[in-house]
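To close the chapter, one final illustration. This time we ask the reader to focus less on the individual chains and more on the assembly as a whole: which components sit near each other, and how the overall shape emerges from the parts.
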Amino acid sequence: MIVETGHYALILALALAVAQSVGGLFGPARRSARLGALADSAALGQAVFASLAFGALVAAHVTSDFSVANVASNSHSSKPMLYKVAGAWGNHEGSMAFWVLILALFGAAVAAFGGNLPASLRARVLGVQGAIGTGFLAFVLFTSNPFARVFPPPLDGKGLNPLLQDPGLAFHPPFLYLGYVGFSVTFAFAVAALLEGRVDAAWARWVRPWALAAWSFLTIGIALGSWWAYYELGWGGFWFWDPVENASFLPWLIGTALVHSAIVCERRGALKSWTVLLAILAFSLSLIGTFLVRSGVLTSVHAFASDPERGVFILALIAATVGGSLALYAWRAPRMAPGGTFEPISREGALVVNNLLLATAAATVFLGTLYPLFLEALGGEKISVGAPYFDATFVPLALPLFLLMGVGPSLAWKRADARAAFVRLRFAAALAGAVALVVLAIEGGARILPALGIGLSVWIAAGVAVDLAERIKLFSAPFAQTLGRARHLPLGRWGMATAHLGAAIVVAGVTASSAWQTEKIQMMRAGDAVDLTGYRVVFEGVGEVPGPNYIAERGTFRVSRGSREIAMLLPERRTYPVERQQTTEAAIHTTWLADIYIVIGEGDGTGAHAARLYYNPLVPWIWLGAVIAAFGGALAAADRRARTPATAGAPDARIVI
Amino acid sequence: MTPKRRRLTLALVALVMLACAAALMLRALERNIVFFVTPTELAAENSRINQRVRLGGLVEEGSVLRSADAPGAAFFVTDGVARVGVSYSGILPDLFREGQGVVVEGVLGMDGVFVADRVLAKHDETYMPPEVAEALKRAGQWRGAEPAP
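The assembled structure is written out below.
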């Protein structure tokens, strides 16, 4: 009964999505405020019914209702509760239903919090969202119905891929989807602006909080995925330039560019059509990412289904969304009033270079990810493009970006004095240079990249600190005045500082863990000891331990430094009888400055086990920095200036009421 | 500078950057593309010697030899027609089994031994890496549900 209610609610959500798109798109065009206002209530209703539908699916998973095909093929009664709930979005049908739910929730958020938007713009934004919702709800209902029943119902389910039975993975898809689908709002704003035929400072101000929110969610989602890959796949690394990772990284790169170009658009009225293009591309890449990952084109854990009918349907959806919006862009964008111009040495100049670098980086990643697919589709050789390609193209683009990050925020709008900026940043530059030289000396001059990376990380962090200190007159004014200034500094400024500081931490983590990781692979018998970068690791043997729905072979390792015992690490190899699969669980001891990471392999039958031990310096900083950066994005999104009413911008003579 | 000149400068800077990026990409692609080969192809073509490739096929039944003192193994990868000896030092993935699909990445030496530095096994029992399916199809040994193209 609950299942049928959910199915029915999903159909109602589709009907409301149709109403939302018709009302939102035709209302403003026909100058009918009533038709336009229909989009508001339809968006709210769609969110209610989509929530009901997804709630019903979760209920079916929680109660292990194996008469539902989706539950039967992806769940099992012995699965822990967390994964019964998370299993609802851990499969193709459920994840698409979840996608649709988030889209509906974002639409409702625009309807609920968009009171400051001109009525015609809001109606059009909701109309575009409704159109996307129509497409994806139809996709779910007609090709991937999560509520389909099976008869006779099986006695028990087939279980969930054990690799996905993990807390990190339970929360990775929701955040990733919040990011992907969050860009649907900026996409809708961009298409609505093209329909309206105008992009102005007010438009940019309304778009920015949505772009920032989507960016923050996507940052968290990618960080969770990378963290999961780090401890679950047991390879000791955090990023593998896997096509699936790249698929989520592409919208992130373009989204980062968008967040920055929208500032220029808001403050200086320039880069208008570029910002619109970025908004379109960010969501288009999110869609392409979803398609690549879900369709089974790529070999990965993420490839749930490879039903050709679904692939064609989703490909048609993407073609319509991406092609339609780009065609509209090509038609309308040249007619928009050109924006202002600016000096090369200025805040906006720095932001333009930032955008060029980010867009170029996105292009190189895009090419490397899709080139093998194109080549194969054209009947060419089967090839793969691996990490060395991405390292060789991405790093040279990232370094100037980080250099710019340190100085950009200190430049003034319009026309900046480059010399004055460097005088202000001389301490930051000196500190960064000194640190880089020390690193180079420790390295013995053998490698330059670690010194550059650590130096740039210090440069970004010191640049942020110097800029903030100047703005609040730290140490140069009485403390009470400093506090007052800090309180009055806009939240957006704090957000930017926080996000850049997070980036500096990530850069340090990535540099250190790539440059100074120690790896030891060897066969170990009980009592054997290994020296690992100043730590002594003793292997004490392997025992069998039962888990809720698996049996684990658990190794015991004692880690000590000098005479002091630091940790006992228990890596496992788990066998899941239901899914007939094995997983590796790394054991990690973190000091926040480094991780000791141990994976145990198969035994050889005589008591020896293969063991892989890593010393990973600063690796936790990668995720810490990402969380800090996402928090910065959230701070900036909450800036009061983003919520000023419509009248604060240029008065809109064409509001249709 | 006039606005027009400024715009031109910006366009030029953008073009130069794109050109640099394109050069970087082409150079990186040229060096880092890894071709996929089947055991039959690898056995037939000597041109692949000392070139980095991905080899896909099945782990031949009864061929896996494990060494006692260091992790790793030596085994044959077959597509039913030809077979290639592979040596790998490192921890084998959880789903590495005899008779199952595997993709190895590495270099074929002059001695005919393929030295792998990565071994990828499939993710679950029912799933076969597309590369392995492709290798079996090319060798005419495919017994899966879909017909060979």
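Strands of chain B lie at 33-37, 52-59, 65-66, 73-78, 83-88, 101-108, 113-121. Residues 1-32 of chain B form one domain. With these observations in hand, you are ready for the problems at the end of the chapter.
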